[in-house]
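Long-time lurker, first post.

We've been arguing in lab meeting about whether flavin-adenine dinucleotide would sit comfortably in this protein at all. Half the group thinks yes, half thinks no, and nobody has a model to point at. So I'm putting the question to the forum: if I give you the sequence and the SMILES, can you give me back a predicted structure of the complex? Inputs are below. Any interpretation is welcome too.
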Amino acid sequence: MPDPANLFPPFSAPYSPDDSEIAATLLALPALTTEQSARIDSTATRLIEAVRGEEGGFGGLEDMLREFSLSTKEGLALMVMAEALLRVPDAATADRFIEDKLGQGDFAHHRTKSSALLVNASAWALGLSARVIQPGETPQGTLGLIAKRIGLPAVRTATRQAMRLMGNHFVLGETIESALARAADHDEPHHHHRYSFDMLGEGARTADDAARYFESYAAAIAAIGAAAGDRKPEDRPGISIKLSALHPRYDALSRTRAMSELVPRVLDLARRAKALGMTFTIDAEEADRLELSLDVIGAVFADPSLHGWDGFGLAVQAYQKRAGAVIDHVHALAERLDRRITLRLVKGAYWDTEIKRAQERGLDGYPVFTRKAMTDLNYIACARKLLALRPRIFPQFATHNALSVATVAELAGDGGGFEFQRLHGMGDALYTRLHEDKPSFACRTYAPVGSHRDLLAYLVRRLLENGANSSFVALAADDSIPVAALLERPQQTIRTPDRAHNPRLPLPRDMYLPRINSRGVEFGDRAALDDLRAAIHGQSAPQAQVRTATTEQAAIAVALARTGFAFWSRTTADTRANALERAANILERRMPRFIALLQSEGSKTIDDAVSEVREAVDFCRYYASEGRRLFAHDQPLPGPTGESNTLRLRGRGAMVAISPWNFPLAIFTGQVTACLMAGNTVIAKPAEQTPLIAAEAVALLHEAGIPDSALHLVQGDGAIGAALVAHPEIAGVVFTGSTDVARSINRTLAAKDGPIVPLIAETGGINAMIVDATALPEQVADDVVMSAFRSAGQRCSALRLLFVQEDVADRMIEMIAGAARELKVGDPCDPATQIGPVIDAEARTRLDAHIARMRETARVHLAGEAPASGNFVAPHIFELASADQLTEEVFGPILHVVRYKAADLERVLQSIAASGYGLTLGIHSRIDDTIESIVERLATGNIYVNRNMIGAVVGVQPFGGHGLSGTGPKAGGPHYLPRLATEQTVTINTAAAGGNVGLMTEE
Ligand SMILES: Cc1cc2nc3c(=O)[nH]c(=O)nc-3n(C[C@H](O)[C@H](O)[C@H](O)COP(=O)(O)OP(=O)(O)OC[C@H]3O[C@@H](n4cnc5c(N)ncnc54)[C@H](O)[C@@H]3O)c2cc1C
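Top reply:
Settle the argument with this. Predicted structure of the protein with flavin-adenine dinucleotide, as tokens:
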């Protein structure tokens, strides 16, 4: 398959440019004439009147929103219920779930305002259920009462019925055949009624998923084609496909694989659509996949076998800042190939996800606009561009916004060569009115097809998107908002470029002010990834010589650190914080250097290495900022008049910091900078497997202004660490590593005479995740695979023991194993690798032995493959009969699974508590009551709900556990620095010199 990069220049545009620059360009576009504006007002007003005029105006969704607004507890509960209920197989969990959600709202007193069938049925079912569940009753008690009164099955049936009704409203059919039959019923050819069918589902996580989605697209194309009859080409039905459904690793870092495996699949489907004269549209998905999607689209579109077909196309999102550039790129492609292409202009369905991802990734800006009016403004600018590119491009305007529709209608004129699009179940009244007014305008309905179980996640996205109070549909549904307000043009709202960015949404860098967030890299931005890779590649081998210290040298380091304490402990907090901030800035600049080191010495993948450098940067800035807060000023305390009382924190002395190989930069830097910030000097002893990273980190800290006398590096193995700990003059130990070594440090410290010094130990854990039947399998698969296998399972926080409710266990385990099978094990320097080698041969031998034992005693769900040479360990998944078969932390890519009965959750919690560890815990459930009771019951240090359980962020998820997992306080948390300091109070009798002047002059 030819790589499109060789045929056409690849798409390239700044990923997240400044909003104001774009606004300046958009605001400078020629204004419409007064006549045009007046016509837009009049068309939009008629459309709004249509949707407000009749019950069920927009087509049901708005009625739902009116009834159960998302800003109410009922609305939110309804949404969560819709998303999960139908996939819960067992009655007990379904009942707990229903009760949990209904208990959150006031459904019983909800009087329906609307007579629409959909809302009535929902309100009836929900009201019925809610009336029998009184707020304040305990789950167990309530369940008993309900069962007695009307029987829980009746409640369950009614609620499920309401959910089904909603499903029925938004899905054209559960199978393509039923959808086609329903479409035929609606068919009125003179209305130019067109369909684009969309097979519902989440993105593929496994090869089997991808194959299943392929088959379902292929079957749908055949069925749609057969039913199309002899309609005119432009009226023929089409299909919309999602690239994420066709490949389990459709991500930027897996580009080579995606190109070689995904392109042939899409091409195959496109050829089938061409043969049947259908349209074929590739949906727009997340921003980080945009460049990859355009590569795939370019390769497919360029294939000569599609020549002579006008039906191929794609969707473009106007909320993305790169939308205009995408249109130019697609147009150039079509020109070169001398083909027509269809382009569906949407605003975009993943806005909240995009904002969150950019924040998590620490990007310089957002790839999407942050003000709704900017999205609307860009939509119209893109519409103008597209209309001008007719007929090379056939534009399709997908929106339910009356003002956007009216503006496009005005700009389009009567020349044709475009169509509107709407979602099935929405926008009926609007488009019916448009058709009455402009009969020549065609409208295509995007019609989801699939089982209701698959639909509901889709439905929730639609409800969220349209229920948000910025959404046109939600505003239109609110009769108190005057029509004139809905007619305000986006350029009136924005007015000047400096108002283009939403001031309430700080840039990712500014999220944690006063400290600056660490800068990350977006791998979906090819230019950024290429630059980083080139910079990593250009790094020279480290110069530092690693000299293992002798016991005498270790003792000298302690003596020097003690001497250095006299100076360092007297520096101001500001001086120390400034040095740490300088270190953070240098580290950020030297990210490629440290990534290269982390890869060569620690076998880190690029993703892990970037995260690690960021964590180290965050530690420096966080402790600097905390240090300023805690150490800069004495804290005044209350007391009697004539006396001043203050509390001061000061350094303890020379601290020993012993760090592990699994985070050779981040944990090392975290320990050292915290000790320094608290006014201590430090003797740092890194793991013997990763000495070079430590050497460069220490050199960097010295360069940033930490005096040599304050920070001393002592290289060596456990024996040197033990010698440091045993030294009589150290002021404390900060340790991260195994529980056994922590115990031995504790004994050594206890055995010494002299001052009793503190030990802060962070150790491991047998970390568990609990997944109940309400969890979304795809989300679980993503989070489990990430938590168990990322960093080859060599994180203290990694998931070791997965508890899955037995009713859903088969499906969950199959999906997790299938997703894990897609992980690439290999050279960590290859960006496509997800699992590099384990740290050394010793670790590999230990893990291999565990695998061999498990193969004998447990059920094997996955025995992955890994290169034979090198310290590779393939991912494995074993099912245990009971949790107590796992007695120790297994530090590698090995996941253990245990099934549990819903009624036995308490036993699961007991077994987790009984392990004695308490580091991280994952929970996947939609039942708040379950989540709360687990959190209440277990004192685990870091609990993650409905997400992965690794990658704690400094200052956001302070990290560390209790029991066998560590002493606390948490690293990167507010209690860490005080633990490294001594406290001193100073009391001054201010009345001593001749009386209490302050008091006597009060009156
Ligand atoms: C036929 C059809 C096909 C579709 N296909 C796709 C697709 O392939 N991919 C896809 O992503 N979406 C798709 N969508 C959904 C579409 O992107 C819109 O989300 C949806 O139609 C709402 O847009 P609107 O013009 O109707 O509503 P409006 O209420 O006018 O606009 C909502 C838009 O504004 C954005 N927005 C909200 N707040 C802000 C803010 N603060 N800053 C910036 N923007 C903000 C929202 O994210 C949303 O995109 C499709 C929609 C239709 C009708």
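For your lab meeting: The chain has a mean pLDDT of 90. DSSP finds 38 helices and 23 strands in the chain. Whichever side wins, do check it experimentally.
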